[in-house]
Amino acid sequence: MRDPRVQCGYMKDVAEALSRLGAQGAAVRAADEALFRELEASPRAAWLPVSMNVRWVEAVCRAFGWPAALDFLAARVSEQFGNPLFRSFVEGGIRLFGLNPGALLRLIPRGLAIVFRDCGEWTAVRTSETSMELRGAALPSELAAHPHWVESIGAGAIAMLALCRTSGDVRLAEHDARLGRAVIEVRWRAQKAA
């Protein structure tokens, strides 16, 4: 099995966004200064050990506590929708499905595949008109052992709901680190007919 990796360009984009966030950004950087030095020294096109992404989530948790960290992470994902790595992916999804949460949320596993390699298998399963489950399987132990990292996958769902101009709830419904499985439940407000 190959080592789990995260795309450096994505990590650099998120880290660079911290400089625009004043005290909030400084608090995250201060929580793991070595991480940000390592990111700055890494080539943009590289694939980094996924432990760097785990450290990123942990730094945000130390800076803000949980669940406030999840909202902070979701805001960073929303910012990435306008960056080259995700822009065409998101715009293509909107062209195909409009701002339909049930359709766009199904794209999250594909979005994860842009950023992560060998980090488990994620699927999106619609469970009702206004709910979906993001199901993770075969999660490597270095990820499955971190419940906040697992739940942070839901930041993409929060960002997608905001893009669809609706809100909802995201929660870690199941997590089995030993088996490398997780379920993130996503519920959203029904959209009014136009």
Q: In oligomeric terms, what are we looking at?
A: single chain
Task: Point out poorly predicted stretches.
Answer: none
* Main sheet: strands, sense, barrel: 4 strands, antiparallel
Termini separation comes to: 49 Å
Q: Name the strands of the widest sheet in spatial order.
A: 4-5-7-6
* Name of the CATH first level: Alpha Beta
* Radius of gyration computed on alpha carbons: 16 Å
Question: Whole-number average pLDDT?
Answer: 93
β-strand amount = 15-25%
- Topology as a string of helices (H) and strands (E): EHHHEHHHHHEEEHHHEE
Write the layout of secondary structure elements.
Layout: E1 5-7, H1 8-17, H2 22-31, H3 33-41, E2 47-49, H4 51-64, H5 68-80, H6 84-97, H7 101-104, H8 108-115, E3 116-117, E4 121-128, E5 131-137, H9 141-144, H10 147-152, H11 154-163, E6 168-176, E7 181-188
Antiparallel strand pairs: 1-2, 1-3, 4-5, 5-7, 6-7
